[in-house]
Amino acid sequence: MGAPQYTEAEGNGKPFGHDSQWPSLRYNDIMNTHQRILVTGSAGRIGRAAVAELVARRHTVVGFDIRETPGIPADQSVVGTLTDLAALRRAATGVNAIIHLAATPDDAQFPRGTPPNDGDNFVAELVPNNIVGPYQVMEVARTLGIPRVILASTGQVIDGHLRDDNIPVTPQSPPRPRYLYACTKVFLEALGQVYSQQHGISVLAIRLGWCPRDAGQVAEIWGKELFQDVFLSPGDAGRFFAATVETPKLPPFAVLYATSCFTHKKRYDLSSSKELLGWEPKEKWPDGIA
Ligand SMILES: NC(=O)c1ccc[n+]([C@@H]2O[C@H](COP(=O)([O-])OP(=O)(O)OC[C@H]3O[C@@H](n4cnc5c(N)ncnc54)[C@H](O)[C@@H]3O)[C@@H](O)[C@H]2O)c1
Any idea what the CATH number is for the domain that residue 55 is in? Predict the structure, then answer.
């Protein structure tokens, strides 16, 4: 079954609700044809997976990262930082959609230890990269008239539900963030909803499962059934992000989950991802970690 079709008056309205005073929107008509897509954080773990899948499907990918993006021509790999609005704007000019992945992807140290080991990365990294960064992305989308933005949130925003076994979590599950990193992603989701409502940009906020970045994280996942159930393989992640830009019509705003198939217990309800995008995971832990 394909993804459902939406009109301007519709939306899944989850979890923040749909504004009945919705302005006249130029809803996206992105088709499953060649697109020009900006991927921020394109040199990272999930970014490389998304870029590889988009390139394989013959989309033109512009990468934006503080380091070179592998897998795309050098002139499409923009090296810059999210806080440089002009650089971001240049990279985004002419794209059909933005997949925003660039971020500091976790807390450095939390809960805090005892002094002197009680620091965190909030002011130095999380604020510029995860608070100011998404704001810049949404501003670029607004000022350039980019109709669709996909924002990388995290399952850490509903961590409290997972820990209490209050599962499966759904897009309506209220945030119960883990630490400060997860707080920045609650902000990101709210930011996306505001820009969607006020500026008619179609925004998806994706609560991503765990796609391990290194051998230490792989070892952690081996150690706990919960972590295996929320695993997200690079292959499933790539196909997910491709679906977000290939689905012709999307609601104004939605929160979705992306994980691979669970191995023990169903922790995340992926049905909205299937309904909206026609996407379902194909893999499960430990597929694709090599
Ligand atoms: N991997 C996971 O398990 C996971 C889970 C949930 C959510 N996420 C989210 O998915 C996204 C991608 O995560 P990842 O695991 O690929 O992380 P990653 O660290 O591998 O990739 C992030 C990329 O963003 C770039 N970056 C960071 N700050 C930047 C800035 N200011 N300007 C430009 N580029 C910048 C980094 O250079 C890096 O290449 C992040 O938003 C993260 O919070 C990841």
Answer: 3.40.50.720
